[in-house]
Amino acid sequence: MTDLSAERSQADVPVQKSESSNTAEATSTAAKKEATVGKPLIDDPKFTVRDVSVFYGEKQAVFDVDLDIGKNQVLAMIGPSGCGKSTFLRCLNRMNDTIDICRVTGSIELDGRNILDKKMDVVPLRARVGMVFQKPNPFPKSIYENVAYGPKIHGLAASRIDLDEIVETSLRRAGLWDEVKDRLDQPGTGLSGGQQQRLCIARTIAVSPEVILMDEPCSALDPIATAKIEELIAELSENFTIAIVTHSMQQAARVSSRTAYFHMGNLIEVNDTETVFTNPEHQLTEAYITGRFG
Amino acid sequence: MTNSTEKLSTNQLVEKGLKKRYRAEARFKAYGMISVSIGLIALLALFTEIISKGTPAFMQTYVQLEVNFDADLLEITDVTDDTQLRMANYSAIIRKALIERFPDVSGRREKRSLYSLVSVGGNYQLQDVLRADPKLLGETKSIWLLADDDVDSYYKSLGEEAYLGRLTENQVTWISSFVDDKHLKKRFNSGFFTSGDSAEPEQAGILGAFLGTLLTLVVTLAISFPIGVAAAIYLEEYAKQNRFTDFIEVNINNLAAVPSVIFGLLGLAIFLNLFGMPRSIPLVGGLVLSLMTLPTIIIASRAAIKSVPPSIRQASLGMGASKMQMILHHVLPLAMPGMLTGTIIGMAQALGETAPLLMIGMVAFIADIPSNVTDPATVLPVQIFLWADSPERAFTERTSAAIMVLLVFLISMNLAAVWLRKKLERRW
User: Fold this and answer.
1) pLDDT tens digit string along A243-262?
2) The CATH number of the domain where B255 resides is what?
3) DSSP letter string over A238-286?
4) How many separate domains does chain A show?
5) Chain A: nearest CA to B414, how far in angstroms?
6) What whole-number distance in Å separates Cα of residue B193 and Cα of residue A288?
7) Closest Cα partner for B263 from B346, B360, B348?
8) Chain B contact for A151 (CB, 8 A cutoff)
9) Domain tally for chain B?
10) Which of A248, B162, B353, B424 is deepest in the core (most CB within 10 A)?
11) What is the ipTM of this complex?
């Protein structure tokens, strides 16, 4: 791993620009691998992603991604629609298993253990790596039951009092406690969109995961709810590793410390957020950020 | 007429075609209303026919007699001994009461035709009266006794064209005498709901058939619901998409269309001949009917499971739930309304099935009331079928009354389905 990082950290010069400017060519079924620029690898990562490709049947959606995700940091993944960022995110907690035709190759190591191994049990994995989805999807149960579900099935609470405590802590951390503390037995689906998403976040953190994956969590919400959730992400990042896929570059700039730009299934550039937005290295990154497409 | 050479504007063209379009629309609406009306008229005709034929059955003719509980005639020495009470000769005191009423009747044939005015059921009535009040022994009391079905049919027809049936002239005279003295009365026929089948129409009731139907449906539900739901869950959640599962799916859909009598033959061949189970019991009837309703339940359950949104499944799996936990905690509760509705509809279909049950022997005349699933029993549709075959006029009205009971059962089940679905509907 060390010689790889030595190799890549010298890549200050963008490479292989030949196919990049012609998007028509790139949309053919034989889309090719582009090399990554910037600093995809870091010291002491939480996730070590090496050579990961994702196939939907015969079609390849993600090409040979090498990436490190840092501990207790927020990594934002940006890119145009259909560039494979959500697909890549779902690999990190093996949610792609639910899609029959999906096939993932390569290795993803979480604290040293390859999670793509067939022998890996996905149930505890998903307790360690939680996920918040694009459209808020609380269970059709009470608010209390929504948050308590995870701890219950994983046996994290010894008694009802412990469970109450976990529910309260999670709702407080999600910034929802004050709004719902008097109606914990009301259905979770009766809340507003922003509240529902915060409920989903509370539900996810109730099992004390190490990583939280967020797939465009604010795209279905209004600006005020979005602002609340972005505040939440900043607070949570002190204790959790967060990977967030977002369509909004402003959001990526606001909440993340590192940003990864995906294009047509390729990881084009990874760097500190400030660098990516003020001084991008790759031509494609610059085109996306300045709004020429996407 | 310069207009004919000018090109019409769009607006004018539209205006021209409007009348035709509105006429076509009105016609279309009319077709719909006519269709609905035809359906409603047919339904109305059916209900009117059944209800008008069946309501007379809910009233039964009784005749009032002065009965002397003569201990010698009854052959009772100890009125507290139940065996003696049961074996006592009540016919004797009934005959005595009748002769005292019409002392001029002589000759064996005449006397016999007089005695036949009162139903055999009168004996059991007197037994119950005496058992309830033993002090009546030796006393005389006015008692309303059940009249024979010939009397009943004649009395009920007195409003329109009098139906004589097998009644002789003398019998008609005696009946008229009772009517004049106001000793003939129609009362509510509670026996219809409390007694089992009988060869005598005035004593026949549907309790046996009703309980038989209930027990059979309980067995059907207990077998077909768990198996159907489990099969649907397996096919939807676990089975891989390949030729074998396609084959299974095609077969299940076809089974739903197989004529029910074939299931009866299957039951006959396997349950009765191969396994040697006794015929005509609700257990075997339930087994045959559950084979019939299984495809319906599987198809309805699969549709219900498919309708659970994937977002709930993803949320559940994302929390680290195992596949079984996801199904039990999230998919099943949301799919339950659809599953239950499908099940109740399947049950309502099974309720009206006659052909398969005839094949397994539920066509026998069974007078006893079944108490558990291994007692011989018959079911409501078969009872209707048997009564429809009988010649007595009293059975005609009872057939229609039994149909009314069956329809009420059916409508209640469908109402239960609607209520259940409303109650369990959850929003997500």
Assistant:
1) 999 988 889 989 999 999 99
2) 1.10.3720.10
3) TTSEEEEE-S-HHHHHHH-SEEEEEETTEEEEEEEHHHHHHS-SSHHHH
4) 1
5) 27
6) 82
7) B360
8) no
9) 2
10) B353
11) 0.82
